[in-house]
Amino acid sequence: MALMGIQMVVSLLVASVMQRMAPHCSFARWLLCNGSLYRFKHPSEDELCALAGKQVPRPNRRERRHNGVQDNKPLTVPKDIDLHLEATPINALDALVLRFFLDYQWLVDFAVYATGIYLFTEGYYTLVGSSKEVNVGAIWCFLTVVFSLKALLTLVSHYFRSEEGGERSVCLAFAFLLLLLAMLVLVVKEDYLEFGLEPGFASVFDNLEIFLRQQGHEWSFPFTKLTVKLALAALCSFIGALLTFPGLRLAQTHLDALKMTSNRPLIQILLHISFISPLAVILLWVKPLARDFLQNAPMGKHSITLMSSSTFDSVRLWVLVATCVLRLSVTRIHLQAYLNLAEKWVEQMKKEAGRIAAIDIQRKVTRVFCYLTVVTLQYLGPIMLLLFSTLLLKSMGDYSWGLASETEGTTPAISSLVTPQPVGPTEQGEMEEDIQATAAHVLDTLSSLRSVFTPIFYRGLFAFFTWWVAACQVVTSLFGMYFHQYLVQS
């Protein structure tokens, strides 16, 4: 198995380009600062005084700001003033002051380059066929999944550090709820939810026993299927906690986006399809509703096969990719709907009686824009998890993008462990011989480990991970829809 090849060279080249081009060309900055998104400026004290019909001389205002006695009396205006916020396009200087902007820029740019690397490796394997090189594209996809989880964890930790305990309670409640749901899903038989976890774990245990015996060790791991499933359920609970607020935020921006595009029915249809698309992903793994129905579709007294098993696997991958692309296509609509919350709050304030401090109006309007990158990460993070876990499922599970596959059977669970021939002595001395022997031993060990974790295991693991990410989005977004439509209004 070659560790260095054209994939590694291209990967190192792309990493160098990404590092050098980040200050000059960034897809993340273009997404927010290309002029299509508008933020609302907060009104100044002079504008609020003019709208309130209250003329305050400038010396008095300066005195109010620097005199400790008068600082306790902030400027207040009536809530029903005729205030209209000024909209302005977001530029690069505005984006630099946003919360978590650097984390957002790193994640989005890395995901773009990872997609390019993956497309290159897919084309490379298509041209050269099966190769013994390490799939570098899969490594980039795995790193993108890890960085997405890290970004979401950063946001959740920010909620946990806040003085108010409401967000913390919501995360813990959903973590417990989704833990119960994960344990329930893991006990469902493969006849209903066809993840392939059972054959995958059996394959790993059998291959690991053979590997350890060949290395001179006895099989002494006290792992059981129950222990592994409990650990997997705990991981699912953790992921569910990370996806709680993204789902709740998606529900809010979806409702606001529908109101914003009330005169554009085609966009509304697109928004509805995008919102419910993860539900279709969940149903694709329900065997009686998906695979069994398409392979044995009832037609009167007979049944017909609409597509083969391999074709169904390819179609499922394409549906997952289409779901992610559809959600990416309406990103700006959701972000603009969030930015419009500032104007929405002002309109709601006008309907109330009483007075309000000018500084409170300015803070409320500014806060909406300051959390733009947080909302963007909450929107893009689950999409990246779903997309790149799908790419990992395809690559590591040995699936095909084509609608017809030459081989339809499963990959053998146990691969032959080939021991390389010892490297003979050369004229360059014993040092080179030792280096070659060490390299041969490392390659032999890696090849043996590669035979332990077979495509059957990766199919079950990444299929379940992909399905779980979609399920968490469905549960949290539907609850958020109910919360914002009924509980908030009441």
Distance between the termini: 63 Å
Structural class: mainly alpha
Q: Describe the sheet with the most strands.
A: 2 strands, antiparallel
- The number of helical runs is 20
SSE order, one letter for each helix or strand: HHEHHEEHHHHHHHHHEEHHHEHHHH
Count structural domains.
Answer: 1
- β-strand amount: under 5%
The strand count comes to 6
Strand order of the largest sheet: 1-3
Roughly how much helix do the residues carry, as a percent range? 55-70%
Q: Note poorly predicted spans.
A: 404-427
Overall shape: it is globular
The chain-level mean pLDDT equals 82
Taking all Cα atoms into account, the compactness measure Rg is 28 Å
Description:
The protein has 490 residues and is mainly α. It is 68% helix and 4% strand. It has one domain (6-43, 83-414, 454-487). It contains 20 helices and six strands. The chain has a two-stranded antiparallel ribbon. A two-stranded antiparallel ribbon has the order 2-6. A hairpin with a 2-residue loop joins β4 and β5 (302-304). The longest helix is centred in the C-terminal third of the chain and has 33 residues, at 455-487. It starts with 5 loop residues before the first helix and ends with a helix.
